[in-house]
Input
Amino acid sequence: MASAHILWIAFSWLLGGFVHGVTSIGASMVAMPMITFVTEPREAILIACVSSGVVPLALSVIYRKSILWRETLWLSAGCIVGIPAGVAMLTRLSGPVLLFAMGVMLLFFVAWQTFSHHLTVTLPFHPATALFAGFLGAFLTAGTSLGGPVAAVYAAFRGWNQQNALASTSMYFNFVNGSVVLMQWHAGLYDSGVFSAISVSLTAAVLGVLISIPVVRHMPQATFHRLLLLMIFASGVTLVGRAVL
Output
């Protein structure tokens, strides 16, 4: 991989880590669309699947007392079918189709962030609902690295408070991310180039989070959040446009 490409990947994940530290929006939402300009869509997804797994691991430890274990386990059970289906999609679909799928997920995320504050319905817990949400989140994570919006929608409809949502969805993604990477590895999707990019991405993402710490206190959150959603919207439109043109 060319040095310029490595530098772009490092910058993308530095920005992604910074954004996550400031807004809690996943680093891969920002970094993964950017690195598709210098990597194949499948490689970008593989890099994001590994590099974005550090944050939920840390959050599940920090908020471990707030994990809703019953629902987390039902969500995680959806991985049994969701992950193999997602990996199968990743190995078989063409680059344009993967770009289209990633773009649609980003646009869905922007729409959800924009309109979810109007949500008034709270759904009761049911194993089938949790199982389906877990399946869909695992499927999209394995296939596009963007399963986070599904977990956010489920948490919102269940009426979870912030700590329960952070803890439980993070623990769920620990199951998902670990299983996804193992199955992708078993499918022979990782090579030396991907590992080199991952080592750069992980380091840059952590550095981005560290840089964000002193900035958080002085940055107007509402303005930054709106600008970020606009950037993610533009990324989603760009990915869809590259897929269909």
